[in-house]
From TrEMBL:
Necessary cofactors: Fe cation
Protein name, per record: Iron-containing alcohol dehydrogenase
SUPFAM superfamilies, per the entry: Dehydroquinate synthase-like
Family affiliation: Belongs to the iron-containing alcohol dehydrogenase family.
């Protein structure tokens, strides 16, 4: 008999306008000075200023770190750690998308230890010092980083270090749908697909449990109908609410399982071509799902019906129907047709294959994949 286990160790709050309660959460967690980690785009949009105003009103001292980059590197984490320690902050507020979340969580993990984020590269390495607590506030519906135990940080050699550690999990996540209603359409599409891919790939992982399946199914049920509506009109608060909750549920499955080939192959694309993570996943996803169809045990039909819950299909289902639906979804959302349209060639193929092989994801994919099959998946996603 297989032994299955899972745990959810976090407080998650959801509500329109919830951001106004941030001061209460900081005080409840005993924070005396906050490191607010955000990105330049949110500063420019005025959203960071809103958070700063809330902290000021609550009488909570803070320092803002806004040097987050789209592809967070170890050098940015080191700057954030230096800001935190020099300002003696004892609580981190991660405010933004996946890049801000990963930077904040990594800085909090390093804390006041004097170590580097490189020292924790890998899976569940021991942490022998006190980490800094994190409140995570997502401004995109995609990465689910507010509820995951992992970050992805680029090292000096362009390698995407995947770090999984229980100490990386934010203690508190605040979900406010209002915060994602100003997303640009391209970001809404790419991050929304990233959330969907989290749910689907974890659903197909051989690490899946009945609990993670239930969470993934609900995530797909929320995201499937909401994603096109949200991309069409980000002010649709119900669509925004469904996307944000769906993204968080998908993030929970990501902490319980591991994703599949799309994620393993997308990380090198971000490292070598600086393609946003969600967009790289979206370009690979129809190809990897087509590849995995040979190993389907009936879940493709369930995925199809969850994504199209208003129009479920029961008779004569073929996995190819799901593949065609995913291709059409990319097209409807205005995404490129393939990686080639984004400038990807075989120039860094060998380097990307070397980096892609370093993850444990390959051990838990629905269909086994050797290096030549990885090459084939890249080539197909470049030209399809």
């Amino acid at each position: 008999m297989d032994i299955q286990s899972f745990s959810v160790k976090q407080d998650v709050s959801f509500g329109v306008g919830l951001i106004e309660k941030l001061g209460d959460y900081v005080k409840k967690m005993g924070g005396t000075k906050v490191l607010l980690v955000t990105d330049p785009g949110l500063v420019k949009a005025g959203l960071t200023e809103r958070v700063e105003g809330i902290l000021n009103k609550a009488g909570i001292p803070y320092v803002t770190f806004s040097e987050v980059e789209p592809d967070p590197g170890c050098w940015v984490v080191e700057k954030a750690v230096k800001c935190m320690t020099s300002e003696k902050a004892d609580l981190v507020v991660a405010f933004g998308g996946g890049s801000a979340m990963d930077t904040a969580k990594s800085a909090a993990l390093v804390g006041y230890s004097g170590k580097r984020i490189h020292d924790y590269w890998g899976y569940y390495l021991p942490v022998e010092h006190d980490t800094v607590p994190v409140i995570a506030i997502p401004t995109t519906a995609g990465t689910g980083s507010e509820v995951t135990r992992n970050t992805v940080i680029t090292d000096e050699n362009k390698y995407k270090m995947v770090i999984l550690n229980d100490n990386m999990l934010p203690q508190c996540a605040l979900l406010d749908p209002e915060l994602i209603t100003t997303l640009p359409v391209s970001v809404a599409a790419a991050t929304g697909l990233d959330a969907l891919i989290h749910a689907v790939e974890c659903y197909l992982s051989d690490l899946a449990t009945p609990f993670s399946d239930a969470v993934a199914e609900k995530a797909m049920e929320l995201i499937g109908p909401a994603l096109p509506r949200f991309v069409a009109n980000r002010k649709d608060i119900q669509a925004a609410s469904d996307m944000l909750m769906g993204s968080t549920l998908a993030g929970i499955t990501l902490s319980l399982c591991l994703p599949n080939q799309a994620h393993a192959l997308s990380h090198p694309l971000t490292g070598y071509y600086h393609i946003p993570h969600g967009l790289a996943n979206a370009m690979l996803f129809p190809t990897t799902m087509e590849y995995n169809a040979l190993a389907d045990r009936g879940k493709y039909k369930k995925i199809y019906n969850r994504l199209r819950c208003e129009y479920p299909y029961t008779d004569n289902f073929e996995p190819s129907m799901l593949i065609e639906y995913l291709k059409k979804l990319n097209e409807d959302l205005g995404l490129p047709r393939n990686l080639g349209e984004m400038g990807v060639t075989d120039e860094f193929m060998e380097e990307m294959l070397t980096d892609a092989q370093k993850t444990k994801i390959w051990e838990h994919c629905p269909r086994s994949t050797d290096v030549e099959q990885m090459r084939m998946l890249y080539e197909k996603a470049i030209t399809r």
